[in-house]
Structures are given as structure tokens and as C-alpha cells.
Amino acid sequence: MRSDRLVQRLSCRSQQCVVSHPNSLRTYPLTRSNTQADFPSRLYDVELCYTNLRELPDNLDSKWLLGMMICIEYGQLTSVPSVLIRLMPYSLVLTGNPINELPPELFQIEDMLCLSIGSTKITELPRNVTSFSPLLSSIYMTHTNVSSFWSWINPLLNRTADSSSSLLVGHSPYCTDLGKIMSGDSLILA
Length: 190
Description:
Blueprint: H1 15-19, E1 45-49, E2 69-73, H2 82-86, E3 91-93, E4 114-116, E5 138-140, H3 154-162, E6 166-168, H4 173-183
Parallel strand pairs: 1-2, 2-3, 3-4, 4-5, 5-6
């Protein structure tokens, strides 16, 4: 496990302990000012992992940089906050949140390259994605209950045939059904 991704439970209560813990190379306090106008002007990567985060301030797009890499893994988000779409992330990781529905706009963020929505409670992708992101080349959605895909995903599938683009859907009903077809145990996807 990389040390910059290590999540530790600290028993001390002082703010200084969190900022200067010897085993953490990249820990910064999340303070009220992180959502204010004095947010660091060159911070392009925000990672909030294993938190009890349930919502985001609706005005973050006026405080944070557009086009950031945003990782909110294993939090408590039950939906995708609209402010995340307005932030137009380059990369968005929502893995492990109890999200059960995705907005179509999530797949239409023009400059997004990578989207991770694995280990969520989704059972399908939105039906009405009208303008699939031209740069989105990697979607990680392992450990979901998705069993089929709408035709709007075809541009990504065409990209995967020609490049390093990927659609990862392992440990899903879709892969189980596809495995049955490939082994000859079934003729159609359920």
C-alpha cells in the first residue's frame, strides 16, 4: 500500500498531530477555509478516503479549481452532488459510496478522462446520456449490480478496441452473464 494513500486512525486530538503524523506524507487538515475563497490556488488533487462525508457544499465550484482530480472514496454519499459535475473534474473517483443512481450529466463532462464508480449500489447506468464525453477513456465500475449497457456507451467501447481505453465491470451480473455466453452455457445476456 502506498504511504500517500494510507488511512490511519489517530488517537491524539490536536490538529498538529494530524498535520505532522510521521507515517503520512500527504495529510492536510480539512478546515472551513478549504471551502472558502482562500483555497490553495494550485491544489489540483483532493482525496477524501474512508470518511463519513454525506454531502458537499453546493458552492464548491466557486471556491475550488475546475478540472481537478477529485477522489471521494468509501464515504457516505448516497447521490452524486451536482457541484461535482460543475467542478468538471479531470478524474472523479466515487468508489465505495452507497450511491444507487447516477445522473446522465456525469458521463457528459467534456474534459473528464477517468471515472470510478465501483463498489456502489448502482444497478444500471442512466438511460438518457445525450452527449458522451469525448475524452472519457476509463470507467471503473467493478463490484456493482449492472447487468446491461445502453447504446450511448458504444463510443467508449470503440475507443477500447483502438487504444488503452477501458471499461472495467468485473464482479457484476454483466460479467457473470457474459461468462456463461463465452462458455456456451447461455445464448443471450439476461
